[in-house]
Amino acid sequence: MVNIIKNDQHFYKKLLAIGLPIAFQNFITSALNMVDVFMISSLGDTAVAGVGGANKLYFLLNLFLFGTSSGTAIFAAQYWGKKDISSLKKVLGICLVIAFSGGFIFSIGAICFPSFIMNIFAQDEPVIVEGAKYLRIIGWSYCFNAVSFGYIFVLRGMNYVKIPMGITILCILVNTFLNWMLIYGHLGFEALGVRGAAYATLIARILEACLLILSVNFFKLPICGRIKSYFNFSKDFVKQYLTTVAPVIGNEVMWSLGVATYAFVYGCMGQTVMATMTLTQTIEQLFMVWFFGMSSACAVMLGNDLGQDKLDRAFSYAKKFIKLGILVAVFMSVLVIALSGTVVSLFNVSEDVKYFARLSLIVFSIYIPFKVVNLILIVGVLRSGGDTRFTMLLDMGGVWLIGVPLAFISGLWLKLDIQYVYAFVLFEEVVKLIFSVKRMYSKKWLNNLV
């Protein structure tokens, strides 16, 4: 572990240049998401649970978009390493077609069938009513969100991280200001409650998509070009793309359905548990953002090297990322335990929700090292070389063979308190770690795809 301190200016310079802006972008996103929940918490546990339930649909879409875009980023990083700009534009075009199509389908569900969707994630009628109000409005934002995902991930693969970071931060600040104005009715506007939060997010996501497209053209970035250049791809090119990306999309979709099943279990356990997990997972994101930045930097750096056939350096960097991830994860575990009570106390929710959220965060802190290493290995290392079928099987097996059965047994059969149910759900991370580490050292992921 001492070798992690060993001087490697190229590694650390590139890690900081790519990882820090992404981590900071995610940090601001998570911090202001927490502010959103804080604002909504003033409306009571029902509002928190309703918006949390409604956002489970967005969580499913988010993972679909993440799968499509992160799969695309595999090619973007390798094509950028090879300096093949024409193919870069084509993979962006395919990504936009798939992502926009998925966003459109989710939009139809949210706008036309909000109550039906809320019935999947909640049992209490007041929670369903609040969540349906939110879904009818927020559903209009999903297609814009799909466009943003595609551009952000391709730009990251090209090492352009500051422009997406700046745009996202600006839009989040706009979102937060509009929340303050529309939820509470400031500056002469009507107090709209959860509907105000939905309108604020809708406006911010439209703004983000428009600014990303305008920035690519204004700054004349390499992927700037005529519309035809994005969609002028052959069947063979699409086949090559889908061979690698389809398992990533399938991975995220099946994994997200598993997570939605967890949400179903939490919903069956009652409003207090739903509010607890909404609060817990919002705070968790704040502590995990640095690792998302690290795994994204890992995928880009290794992808760039693999595109240039620098396989030995890619493997060496993979080991560095794991060691560094473990060091930071242990520190973060201690920090979560130390701050859990203080952070939870900031929210205007019932004492029961605060109590169970604090205990759930302590459970989460124990699993942080396992989650972090799996994140770096699956999203960063293995996917960078196109080893997507293995990661799909690993993630699906973890959720459906371990997490989901344990959630039903502990939550609905044994009727344990939420902190124990959450501990059982997260146990999948321990099992996945064994297989992901073994796969990394097999070197079967060291592939130049382009």
Automatic annotation (TrEMBL):
InterPro entries linked to this entry: MATE_fam, MdtK-like, YsiQ
Pfam families, A to Z: MatE (PF01554)
Membrane topology: Multi-pass membrane protein
Coiled-coil positions: none
Main location: membrane
Keywords: Cell membrane, Membrane, Transmembrane, Transmembrane helix, Transport
Localization (cell): Cell membrane
UniProt-recorded Gene Ontology molecular function terms: antiporter activity; xenobiotic transmembrane transporter activity
Cellular-component GO terms for this entry: plasma membrane
Transmembrane segments annotated in the record for this chain: 15-39, 59-79, 91-117, 137-155, 167-185, 197-219, 240-265, 285-303, 324-347, 359-381, 393-414
NCBIfam families: matE
Protein name, per record: MATE family efflux transporter
